[in-house]
Amino acid sequence: MKVCDLDTLGLDQGGHLLLKHALAGVAVGERVEVRGDSPELAVHVRAWCRAQGHGYEWPYVVRGASAGARERGADTTGGVAERAPSTWGLAARGALVEAGGPDFPFTLDEKSAVWTDAAAGIYRQAVAAQWDPAVAVDWNEPFDLPKEVEDAVVQVMTYLIENENAALVVPARFLGQIHPHFREVVGVLAVQVADEARHVEVFTRRAELKRGGGPLGLSTVGGQASLLTLLEEPDFALAHFLLSVLGEGTFLSLLSFLERYAPDPVTRRITHLALADEARHVAFGMAHLGAVMAGDPSLRPRLAATVRRRHDALASTAGLNSEVFDALVVLAAGTFTPAAIADGFAKVQTLEADMDEGRRRRLAKLGFDRDEAAELAELHTRNFM
Amino acid sequence: MADFQNTPLLMGAVAYDSKVVTIWDGFRDWFAGQGFEFDYVLYSNYERQVEALSAGHIHVAWNSPLAWVRAARMGDVRAVAMRDTDCDLTSVVVVRADSGIESVADLAGRTVAVGAVDSPQATLIPLSHLRSLGVDDVKVQYHDVGVGKHGDHVGGERDAARALMSGAADAACMIDGNHLLFGVEGTMPAGSTVIVAQTPPYDHCNFTVAGSAPAGLVERFRELLLGMSYDDPQVRPLLDLEGLKAWREGRTSGYAQLERAVEEVGFYDGAGSVTASDYHP
Q1: ipTM exceeds 0.85
Q2: Nearest CA distance, B22 vs chain A (angstrom)
Q3: A237 and A289 assigned to the same domain
Q4: Nearest in space to A43 (alpha carbons), one of B197, B279, B76, B206
Q5: Hey, is the C-beta of A46 within 8 angstroms of any chain B C-beta?
Q6: What is the domain count for chain A?
Q7: Chain A within 8 Å of B256 (Cβ-Cβ)?
Q8: How many CB pairs under 8 A join A and B?
Q9: pTM of the predicted structure, to 2 decimals
Q10: Within 10 Å of residue B102's Cβ, how many Cβ atoms?
């Protein structure tokens, strides 16, 4: 017969763990002999057995049938499931989930809608590439810009901030809808949200750096209307396409332009840091959309329809506001002279062509034919994001 | 009862805690899923419930042991089922380890903290046990939490334990499981108390059925209860809340100690009228 020797340990000191362990080693109906010197042992073992459904025949306890009930009939959640049941809830992937739990309303619960094998690698890269704005940027590096150029930088920062706010809110909205079973995808989006929060911070700090508490630039109706259409897209794949493939994809060109022609070291540094993060967001968007499309050919025409619909919705708005366009020209010019402005203007025209080319390339990579890629690239919002 | 022949089986329960609604709503749904119409009525105290059972307002009462004792005095009743955890409880009388009290005889003339005046496990049965051991001159210090709920609320026992630990009492009475609980939660740290007396085993709650209740409905109710399995994920949370692993056949062999205690203090008379003068549910 199995013996459980508790020595001087009482059940009010954790002794139940040894008893439970001993009972797990015998069959239902079999006895375990309990030994020990704790004065209340017999009283406590009686009470414990009654509460746990075990028999009590001092100094023996008899294993009851209810032990292990939570494990019996529990769901095994190992491996990435094609569909994660709502009752798996917040459980770790790989956990045994007791049956009968509450339903969690995670609407994005199908692997085919959210998954890409690239997610785990992108998550690892994202975590390793995190940077601290207080350390990664020398905010005290001296520089002095002509007032017109500083104003242009502030206007561009003002524009970037509202776009980064959109890039934060869109994944955040879907984050709570994705079943936590697909934890790598949730992880990538969570870091993405944190990235955008950091971008909002550094662009704000740069905008305010020489402002002395004065107002920042102009936020226009047209710009906000364009971003609202992003926030209003209810479908994860479509929103991810608009935001990460087209919007953030276009921003790669913009941030690259800003890094290259930045008139001051702080602007150069923060756009460089943001560019690396955005490139990762675009890579994840491409990987996700590619994976979804591989399993669902009907997605491609829906993506195209979404671009056309958004274009129609924004047809009556102003597109990129002139303040931003002009600010980009002045920023690239560096000084406020006719020759420099001509140079800046030409650089912004090149930027727009570069953005268009980038969109075509990414659309082609997702399987759109050349003509449709060109058409859709052209229809993308004039507000860039 | 004749008016109720065609109604669902109607059970009374005492609302000693808000979880009672969760429990019986859950069981009602489960019974409905088995094609059995069941409903429940909540009472604020066991005396009202037993009177309702006697008057034929309900078919079944989920009764405390004291409510069973009274119902049995008031009329023709039987116990059809109970929890596994209602069988073979004991109560203990404890003192502080450093008190110098070594046996129950040392309690003579001392203050003994008990639960509510109507608690079988923390008042009536252990005090009767002390009397049976010849200790009948203690000063009883009641901790009246939830009077009328027959000690279902753990608060009275915990207050008695705290009174012991603070020195306001020389001994305290409680159910064996609460001695373990209070040790684990730190109300009475491990090793700080010594058990000087333990009652023989007794039984706790049961489903008390009026003799006039429709036999077919009662039998189906009993069958369904006994058929519930802790392996069933739908009922397991309800069984956990109600504190059992399995329902058992009702038995009435475990109430003799309480009967004796009720007689000794004159809690009820032979016809089930409340005669305890200091009891106001």
Answers
A1: yes
A2: 15
A3: yes
A4: B197
A5: yes
A6: 3
A7: no
A8: 74
A9: 0.84
A10: 10
Nearest to A162 by CA among A254, A252, A225: A225
Residue B107: partners with Cβ closer than 8 Å, 6 or more residues away? B93, B95, B101, B130, B135, B138, B170, B171, B196
User: Residue B163: phi, psi to the nearest 5?
Assistant: -65, -40
Pair (A181, A312) in one structural domain:
yes
**Separation between Cα atoms, residue A250 and residue A385, nearest integer Å:** 7
Q: Which residues pair with B41 in a beta bridge?
A: B12
Q: What is residue B37's predicted lDDT score, i.e. its pLDDT?
A: 96
Same domain, A193 and A307: yes
The pLDDT of residue B5: 53
The alpha carbon of residue B2 is apart from the nearest alpha carbon of chain A, in Å, by: 39
| Chain A residues with CB-CB distance to B230 below 8 A | 53, 65-66, 69
DSSP code of residue B123 = I
Determine contact: A54 vs chain B, CB below 8 A: no
Q: Are residues A89 and A184 in the same domain?
A: no
**Per-position pLDDT tens, chain A of length 385:** 899 999 999 999 999 999 999 999 999 999 999 999 999 999 999 999 999 999 999 999 999 999 999 999 899 888 999 999 999 999 999 999 999 999 999 999 999 999 999 999 999 999 999 999 999 999 999 999 999 999 999 999 999 999 999 999 999 999 999 999 999 999 999 999 999 999 999 999 999 999 999 999 999 988 899 999 999 999 999 999 999 999 999 999 999 999 999 999 999 999 999 999 999 999 999 999 999 999 999 999 999 999 999 998 888 776 667 889 999 999 999 999 999 999 999 999 999 999 999 999 999 999 999 999 999 999 887 788 8
A269 and A145 part of one domain:
yes
**CA distance, residue A5 to nearest chain B CA (Å):** 19
CB pair distance less than 8 Å for B88 and A50: yes
- CA nearest A324: which of A258, A244, A241, A240? A258
Nearest CB to A48: which of B180, B230, B245? B180
Tell me the residues of chain B between 48 and 107 that have a Cβ less than 8 Å away from chain A: 84-85, 87-90, 92
Distance from CA of B193 to the nearest CA of A (A): 10
Q: Residues near B196 by Cβ (< 8 Å), separated by ≥ 6? A: B93, B94, B95, B101, B102, B103, B104, B106, B107, B171
Q: Phi first, then psi: what are they for A83, rounded to 5°?
A: -145, 130
Chain B residues in contact with A65 by the CB 8 A cut-off are 230, 245-246
Whether A86 and A266 have beta carbons less than 8 Å apart is answered as: no
Both A284 and A309 in one domain: the answer is yes
Q: Which helix (H) or strand (E) holds B82?
A: strand B77-83
Q: Which of B118, B131, B115 is nearest to B178 (CA)?
A: B115
Residues A30 and A123 in one domain: no
Is A47 close to B177, i.e. CB distance below 8 A?
Answer: yes
Same domain, A160 and A22: no
Domain for residue A384, yes or no? Answer: no
The stretches of A30-146 forming alpha helices (DSSP H) are 41-52, 111-114, 119-128, 133-136
